[in-house]
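Give me structure tokens for this 410-residue protein.
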Amino acid sequence: MKYGISRRKMNFKKNIFLKLYFTAGAFLIILFIVLYTNSLMRNIKKDVQIVPDLYSKFIGLPADVNLESFLFEYFMTEIFPGIEYPIILADSLKIPYSWENIKVEKKSFSELDSKQQKVILKKIKKYESQKAVIPLKYNVESDRIISYVYFGESKTMKQLRMMPYFEMILVFVFILLGFNVWRSIKRNEENMVWVGLAKETAHQFGSPLSSLMGWRDLLEMKIKDDNSEVAKMLNYMKTDIQRLNKIASRFGKVGSSITHQPTDLHNIIQETLDYFNRRIPSYSQKIKLSFVSKIEGKKINIDPDLIKWSLENLIKNSLDSMKNNNGEIVISAFSYKGQTYIQVKDDGLGIPKSMFKRIFYPGITNKERGWGLGLSLVKRIIEEYHHGKIRVSESEINMGTTFEIILPEV
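Here you go.
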């Protein structure tokens, strides 16, 4: 009941968070776009103010004024000091006589070498193709052009041209972050479901197991002959009840903090193999289980019960995959560069390469029966609780699979 309430609270908080994220995010994006656009518009207005200012200077000029001298002085004193974009002044014959923000030394065009002249003329041609040229006339009614102003893109124009792409990237990043947040919350919710299910399972195991143990002890007290067949059966029953208690304890550890302790991993693997060797006949007399160890006496910090649970899941998975209940399962253990490797190799059905990573997802299985939780649980035990790694190191259809566990030794 408490778990159901906590889950509803988490869902409520998740929905509130997502609504706040998208509402606040959308508002901030719109606010940024508006402020940025207004800033660009102010800069554009400042840039284009040059033209009306220039024409206002022409109005009322005496007829005997040298217009080219006037233009040159006006551009040099009024325009050039405040601009950041390339600009070229040319006379009525389109011969340049001044420029700014172009990497060509400032002197008479005729004094430039041919390479420098080509740079200026190439830019004039480019600006003409872009229609970035202003012909200056004495007045609007006159057809006589006294000068040409060629100009490149200002910083503001470049920003304006890139603005749609920038906005699309901003929106994409916003949606991507939102999706990742949503996926993270969903993953945490799924983890809570599995943790709650595991703990509830452990809890539900507890009461009937206690009762079974009590009934078994009561029956044992009534048996006078300790060597009778019934007494032996009660001992087997005790072993199985202890086994179930251990399984319940494992489920109870899911989602809890784990205490690592120095453990002889060789013994843990051997105990697991001994357990399965006693039960191999129930699968098939033709399946062989062997252990190749190079870690005898080596201790590493682990939770022995959870590691044993992981090995049991891998071996059980290999047994289930053995075709015609025939073949060999080889467990290898060795140490390399400060890490301990455990490999579980079988002669089973194999796994397609496209499933190498997906096989560890909850609900993914290649069996006709099962929930697909075993390998997902192993991955969590190895990677989250022991900071190790687990992977399918190799597999071939109808030839077998090798799972590899890597555990840090420190």
